[in-house]
Amino acid sequence: MSGRCFFGVNGLDQIIPEGMEYGTQILVSGDTGIGKTVLAGQFLLEGLLCGDTCIYVACDESPSVMRRHLRDYKVGVQAYENAGRLILVDAYEEGESKEKYFIANQYSLEKYAVMERLLLQRFPGRRLRLVVDSLSTLLIPFTQEEILEFHRNRLKYLRKNGVLTMDIMVDGVLDQRLMTIAGHLYNVTVRMKFGGSEGRPDRMIQVGKVKSGKFDAVPRRFGISPVFGIIIYAADMEV
Amino acid sequence: MNNTAELYQRIINSIYLSLSETIAKIPFGGKYLLEEVTRKVGERILKENEKKYPPESKRPVDICTAYLKAIGAADPLQIGVIELREEGTDVLITMTQENCIYRYYCEGAVKDGLLFCCPRLGALQSVLTNTLGMTYSTEMKLFDQKTGKCQGRLFPVKRRLRSEMVHSSGDTLTLAGERAILFTRDVYISLLAAIRDYAPFILKKVLFEAGYRSCLPLAEEALVFYNTAEEALDVCFEELKNCGQGRLELVSLDKKAGHAVIRCYQSFEVDAVKGIKLYRTPRVSCDLLRGELSACLSVILGRSMVCMEMECAAMEGDYCEFHAYSEEEEKI
């Protein structure tokens, strides 16, 4: 796929001035409530503005939460959904889902991988962005070997097919050792965590490019604006 | 007609044709200016014949008849050439083109695709405006070869396009009586670049909000003056086009469902960002227009509308396409 792509968050995009290639895999990991889904929303919006077809797999809550979240940022979700540019996949409600796209019975990683591929194959010739929020929830019942095998095959397929992928992992759900190994399979990692003092916690974000080490991995403070989403504070900015 | 009279007639027609040609190149209010010229000509003739012009009543058709009678005394060609009919506040006019002294102008304007304001209608427009104190406009159905006649209509103006009323007065520029400024592309781009440099994350939202707020009064005014949503939208689109935003086309409108598809050809915002690196990657760029369209649709359809740019000529294609949905529908 031609062209470069970005996160859609200015402070992060400045760190990667040349952008990423389609086919890049991004691992976003972090604490609960740190803003991973907000980042996912901005990543999707960036794709929509650039003409990409965006697929969001909701594993931790119903897709309606992302729908509402995007609407809060004044995104006309219906226009994109009706045009087949935004695909919200329910992997949360399972068989009870009222969504057009849903994945039921995810107790087989193989089955999930097949369903994901079938979904992606519905949009041939398009630039695709895929967000799985959170992949760690899907992986809970499986062994380390199963997870790594699934990861290798899946990411290989996505890379080969030029799908820009963002997998979200919640801290503490999977074994740390597994997370470290899995992390090495991604091109880009985004780490989001709470820092600072207990009385005055800061949100911190850190971007690393695992394979080339080209990215600046300095942690940066950020905030979440109800209007603009994630705002990365400049180094000299008082919060 | 002798040779001299024919020569003068040719000259008059050529003057009108040249006017139409020149005025078409004026960015603001070309039609308005042309109407003003034809109306003013009528006004002068009216003044010269004022004493011969006592209308029987204040009905528009009587006023026009009285005027034509007064002129007919001076110009026998008018007699029997023009028929008048009343339709509410409008006057319908049927004219035989064969003897019309302006037919070269009329035919030439059609042939060259120029703006056209019939001088005969302009004269009657002037009479009605002066006598009734109301602004009248004209609409011309050009020559029908089967009948050999032209048909026109004189009607009270509901509202003039604001963008047609641009005047330079002393050292200032006014638009519909309000102080105005003409932004060059450089100024516009500099403004965007300055916002981007200081707070890049607000750029698209600022443009959208600015478009939305600035278009609310226009849409509110259009809603008052026009009966249907299509008419009101049409006049908003005309204003936006006059202001240089590009040609807008309503592709579809479903008022009940609160859904509209609008296209913009030759969008200013597309041309403005060409060759400059405002964004990191190519993307939909017409946020000001998106805001303007959202405001127009929200006011005219009476429900909050969210308008998204689905295709942009800045990325590919010949036009930008906007899809709008009502916010209530969005929430379902």
Summary of the model, kept short:
Chain A has helices at residues 10-15, 36-49, 63-72, 77-82, 109-121, 135-139, 144-160, 176-183, and strands at residues 4-5, 20-21, 25-30, 53-58, 86-90, 101-102, 128-133, 164-170, 188-196, 201-209, 220-225, 229-232. In chain A, helix 5 packs parallel to helix 7. Chain A has a single domain (4-194), classed as 3-Layer(aba) Sandwich (Rossmann fold), CATH 3.40.50.300.
What do you see in this structure?
The complex is a heterodimer of chains A (239) and B (332). Chain A has helices spanning 10-15, 36-49, 63-72, 77-82, 109-121, 135-139, 144-160, 176-183; strands spanning 4-5, 20-21, 25-30, 53-58, 86-90, 101-102, 128-133, 164-170, 188-196, 201-209, 220-225, 229-232. Chain A is α/β, with parallel strands linked by helices and 239 residues long. Chain A has a single domain (4-194), classed as P-loop containing nucleotide triphosphate hydrolases (Rossmann fold). In chain A, the strands form 2 sheets. In chain A, strands 6-5-4-7-8-3-9-10-11-12 form a 10-stranded mixed β-sheet. Chain A has a two-stranded antiparallel sheet with strand order 1-2. In chain A, a hairpin with a 4-residue loop joins β9 (188-196) and β10 (201-209). The radius of gyration of chain A is 17 Å and the shape is globular. With 332 residues, chain B is an alpha+beta fold. Chain B has a 4-stranded antiparallel β-sheet with strand order 1-2-4-3, covered by helices on one side. A 4-stranded antiparallel β-sheet of chain B has the order 8-9-11-10. Chain B has a 3-stranded antiparallel β-sheet with strand order 5-6-7, with no helix packed on it. The model of chain B has no long low-confidence stretch (mean pLDDT 86). In chain B, 47% of the residues lie in helices and 21% in strands. Chain B folds into 2 domains: 3-156, Trafficking protein particle complex subunit 3 (Muramoyl-pentapeptide Carboxypeptidase, domain 2, 2-Layer Sandwich); 182-331, Trafficking protein particle complex subunit 3 (Muramoyl-pentapeptide Carboxypeptidase, domain 2, 2-Layer Sandwich), CATH 3.30.1380.20. In chain B, 37% of the residues are buried. In chain B, α8 packs antiparallel against α10 (287-301). Chain B is elongated. At the A-B interface, β1 and α4 of A face α7, β10, β11 and α11 of B.
